[in-house]
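Example S7 (structure tokens).
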């Protein structure tokens, strides 16, 4: 590299380093939750290339719920392909499952048909991880990568510590979700599979309303 200016060789060295860092881009087929040495979850970058489970409208609670009269928000849920493949076999979400849920406001598409709604920019990103040895109390932990509420322009967080067990995530999911604390009842194809496999909670009652405050 004798005749190459120093800043170019430094940039090249940086590229080589990036390419050799394993956490940069996980293979989507085998992707799973990645933690740093402090037990914080690293934000999954490529969740939109995972298995898509569902988009719902109007299923937001709490601070993400638009005011009365405004268009509702969309929530979309994705799961890592490896866990989904296992779920297809057993009807259960295995250890190593990671779900991503994003919230996007509904925008009225002015150039389209009246009443059409499209998704706006992402406003929230929440994640659930199953790991029964790391989280022996129920097997799940919940995370939020949302920008800090007091500093929304800071952008989505790179890392997130698990919510404490007292957070509303645990109680609402445990109480109202139909399959292992997951809202598989709203993910049509996966729910069919769970019903076939007999993994839906025996006391699941589709008529029971969720009236707590959530995302
Ligand atoms: C009031 C009940 C409620 C609370 C509280 C709640 N959720 Fe959920 N959650 C839901 C519902 C309903 C869904 C179904 C998916 C949707 O909204 O489209 C869901 C789905 C999810 C999913 C997709 C995987 C799954 O389990 O089905 C993630 C990830 C998630 N929630 C994270 C969180 C986090 C993190 C918190 C706490 C900050 C939280 N939730 C609190 C009701 C709740």
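Recovered sequence:
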């Amino acid at each position: 590299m004798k005749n190459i200016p120093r800043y170019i060789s430094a940039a090249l060295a940086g590229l080589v380093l990036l390419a050799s860092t394993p956490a940069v881009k996980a293979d989507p087929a085998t992707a799973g939750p990645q933690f740093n040495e402090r037990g914080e979850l690293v934000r999954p970058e490529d969740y939109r290339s995972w298995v898509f489970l569902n988009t719902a409208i109007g299923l937001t609670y709490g601070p993400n719920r638009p005011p009365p009269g405004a268009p509702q928000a969309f929530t979309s849920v994705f799961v890592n392909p490896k866990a989904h493949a296992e779920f297809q076999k057993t009807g259960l979400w295995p250890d190593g499952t990671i779900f991503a849920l994003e919230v996007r406001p509904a925008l009225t598409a002015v150039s389209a048909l009246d009443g059409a709604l499209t998704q706006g920019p992402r406003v929230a990103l929440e994640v659930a991880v199953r790991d029964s040895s790391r989280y022996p109390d129920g097997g799940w932990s919940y995370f939020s990568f949302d920008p800090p509420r007091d500093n929304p322009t800071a952008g989505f967080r790179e890392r997130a510590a698990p919510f404490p067990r007292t957070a509303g995530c645990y109680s609402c999911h445990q109480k109202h979700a139909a399959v292992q604390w997951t809202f598989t009842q709203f993910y049509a194809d996966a729910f069919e599979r769970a019903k076939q496999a007999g993994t839906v909670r025996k006391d699941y009652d589709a008529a029971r309303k969720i009236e707590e405050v959530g995302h």
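Notes on this example. Residues 7-24 have pLDDT under 50 and may be disordered.
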